[in-house]
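<context>
A single protein, sequence plus fold
<sample>
Here is the protein in question:
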Amino acid sequence: MASEPSTQSRVMFQAVDKTQEPPHRKLGKLTVKYDRKDLQRRLDIEEWIDGQLHLLFDCEEEEIPELEIDIDELLELTDEGQRSRLHELLQECGKPKEDFINGLLYRIKGLRKMSGPLKK
């Protein structure tokens, strides 16, 4: 029996191609997961900014000059850069703005950037 190679049983293994998805899986969107606490903290800061701008400009939201305080942009700057950028943005405000600037800089300490260029 051992002399007849055609009657022997053979076990064959197939190599699995890991680059192909099984046909039953749907392709999903790639999403970035953020810590819920970080998101809530950022939202709280943005709401605080909004309220403070109403007080600084002493007007309704529609009357506030076009002003965008980008938290991510501030996080890229040094402490002094953050302070000077906020002074630039608030130059039209006639009221003292140091308390607002100090409060905002205190609140954004420890925040991480949420978006940015992808590193290759």
About this structure: The CA atoms of residues 31 and 115 lie 12 Å apart.
